[in-house]
Design a protein that fits this description.
This protein is α+β, with helices and mostly antiparallel strands and 624 residues long. The protein is built from 20 helices and 28 strands. A hairpin with a 3-residue loop joins strand 22 and strand 23. Helix 2 packs parallel to helix 5, helix 14 crosses helix 19 and helix 15 crosses helix 17. It is globular and about 85 Å long. It starts with 7 loop residues before the first helix and ends with a helix.
């Protein structure tokens, strides 16, 4: 077949295959155009999951009538001058509208602030109609119908209506977080309406927008991030270690206001929380990176979802270091969801009963009253009578316990706890601390403590495990790791570029006990390994390190292996469940927890304590 020039329609359909994956991609491109036009209000309507209809209306600057034809022409844009390295808008390629128009029925109606009337243009499967007058308010309305009608094969790859609607909602929420001063509305016959009122473009306003999108639980369990290094500024919020999710869908990242799903940022977040989260749990994060557009390339992905940093090591180090520092500065905090779960467990109806009836396992008073017959009511036989266990004459009378028998109860042993932390009132100073004063140990594993306004329950084994682990880590990383000399050096063949990378990081690896040196152009010689690792697969370790250096320019793999050994040692060396603690030991453990960063979770990511506020307890008993 001879080489020939493709038609404009074919070119646009090829571009649509890259840019327009699904209805959510159309919504993303159109909403970004609205925001670039300075809109303060963006309304999105969909039908059929976005395949039947997508309509985006904004109150932005609008498109002049004479430029409407250019707006749907390929590579025509108002957002880019001559410098591709100075991109300060969300869109810049001028591909979205012609690509959408080539696979759907597209119409654009727009009016500028200075215009007397609006104008409209349409494009159907790549065929452009003439510009005509229209009626509209200031701003632009873009309507997309019958998406992929011109390329029906693409419809076979679409998911169900609900899945497509959900993907569109996620796109709108992801963009809305970065623009708190803009009001967003997402509605349609295929969904419940999502309304995100505008807030101020300030840290407080941004946090309110985040709460609108992610729920009010997140701000209550979040730590603020604000750090800068060498011209790169990082701000936002991360969840405390005990507030997690089963997947990473609630990790939002933005580069100069652009939502991205970047592998480097995701890896940095995972690395920052590696010590405090289990492998199957994920932190909740909203991070904003602000830097000079010249040192980040946003033109590396058709949908602009990925970016490339000139200095990825700087960005990764900033994210990891800032999050770890923020977690350390935040001290010890329990997730509010822990208290909510405890309250749910205590509420009537939480326990299951072996008989039918209301959720709380009791017949209602009214039903019992009528069942007994109100006319022949006998208090002695009423289902609501006090239990008669034969206590008459044994300390009980009509008024309850007599005083002398009550005194005997007060003086008797307290069998409800394994250890009582003193019978006197708790020290007022201790009550003012974060974890309060220890009052008892129950079931030989849980310390019950009291603060001025809450009840705290601590898992003594999990808490002490974290304390021992942190002490081991500090000892491990405060000085070079002891190494063992190999009787014969291990020669490992590698691609030349991997060997070069390892050689560049040899000093860092030596601090962790791994002695590496070049051995010819495509190999390295390993002469020492960390003593803590014992018998280990040196070849696999070195190859893993080479892969990590190639991906992230770090040697965290070796550090993580050493930390894992320290975690195992901490687990076996900590206070075991079943050990009775003296009052002073319990209080000492609480004070150590308060002084140790990350002690809110154990090495495996489980919470070490749960706090129940006095107000919550009073609500359980109907006092509030």
């Amino acid at each position: 077949m001879p080489i020939r020039q493709l038609s404009e329609t074919m070119i646009n359909q090829i571009a649509a295959g890259e840019v327009i994956e699904r209805p959510a991609s159309v919504v993303k491109e159109l909403v970004e155009n609205a925001l670039d036009a300075g809109a303060a209000r963006v309304e999105i309507a969909t039908a059929g999951g976005g395949l039947s209809l997508i309509r985006v209306t904004d109150d932005g600057s609008g498109i002049p009538e004479k430029e409407l034809a250019l707006a749907i022409a390929r590579h025509c844009t108002s957002k880019l001058a001559e410098n591709i390295h100075d991109i300060r808008s969300l869109g810049f390629r001028g591909e979205a509208l012609p690509s959408i128009g080539s696979v759907s029925r597209l119409s654009i109606r727009s009016r500028t602030a200075a215009g007397d009337s609006a104008a409209e243009i349409g494009i159907e499967g790549g065929r452009v109609s003439a510009v005509k007058p229209a009626a509209a308010n200031r701003g632009t309305t873009v309507e997309v119908r019958d998406l992929f009608f011109a390329t029906p094969a693409r419809l076979k790859f679409m998911k169900g209506e609900r899945a497509e609607s959900s993907a569109t909602s996620d796109v709108v929420k992801r963009i809305a977080i970065a623009f708190p001063a803009v009001r967003f509305t997402l509605s349609g016959s295929d969904r419940s309406t999502l309304e995100l009122p505008a807030t101020e473009d300030s840290p407080d306003g941004r946090l309110r927008r985040i709460a609108q999108v992610m729920g009010t639980d997140f701000p209550d369990n979040a730590i603020a991030i604000d750090a800068a290094r060498e011209g790169v500024h990082l701000s936002g919020y991360v969840s405390i270690p005990s507030f997690t999710r089963a997947n990473a869908l609630q990790q939002y990242a933005y580069v100069n206001g652009r939502p991205v799903r970047d592998k480097l940022i995701a890896g940095a977040i995972r690395g920052a929380f590696a010590d405090v989260l289990p492998r199957d749990r994920h932190a909740v994060t909203v991070l904003f990176l602000t830097l000079d557009p010249a040192i980040v390339d946003v033109n590396v992905h058709p949908a602009k979802a990925d970016v490339r940093f000139r200095d990825p090591g700087l960005v990764r180090g900033l994210i990891v270091g800032s999050i770890r520092q923020a977690l350390a500065d935040a001290g010890i905090r329990a997730a509010t969801t822990g208290a909510a779960g405890m309250m749910a467990a205590f509420r009537p109806g939480a326990a299951s009963y072996g008989h039918g009836g209301p959720a709380n396992g009791h017949r209602s008073y009214e039903a019992a009253y009528h069942a007994s017959g109100s006319a022949n009511f006998d208090a002695a036989r009423s289902p609501q009578r006090p239990l008669d266990m034969g206590f008459e004459g044994a300390g009980f009378d009509q008024r309850g316990l007599r005083e002398n028998e009550q005194a005997a109860f007060d003086a008797g042993p307290m069998a409800s706890a394994d250890t009582r932390a003193g019978q006197s009132e708790a020290n007022e100073t201790l009550l003012g601390t974060v974890l309060g004063a220890a009052r008892a140990q129950v079931h030989e594993n849980y310390i019950v403590a009291q603060t001025r306004d809450s009840l705290v329950i601590v898992d003594q084994h999990a808490a002490h495990e974290r304390l021992v682990y942190e002490a081991l880590k500090n000892a491990l990383h405060s000085r070079p790791v002891p190494s063992q000399m190999l009787l014969l050096p291990e020669i490992i063949d590698l691609p030349e570029e991997d060997a070069e990378r390892l050689a560049l990081h040899s000093e860092t690896l030596a601090r962790f006990g791994l002695g590496i040196e070049r051995f010819g152009p495509g190999a390295v010689a390993v002469r020492e390994t960390p003593s803590m690792l014992g018998e280990t697969d040196v070849q696999q370790l070195v190859r893993d390190l080479a892969d990590e250096i190639a991906d992230n320019d770090t040697v965290d793999t070796l550090k993580e292996r050493l930390d894992k050994i320290a975690a195992t040692m901490a687990c076996h060396g900590s206070v075991r469940s079943g050990r009775l603690l003296r009052p002073e030991e319990m209080n000492a453990l609480l004070r150590q927890m308060e002084a140790t960063p990350g002690s809110g979770t154990c090495n495996h990511g489980r919470p070490t304590y749960i706090e129940l506020k006095l107000a919550d307890i009073e609500r359980l008993f109907g006092r509030r």
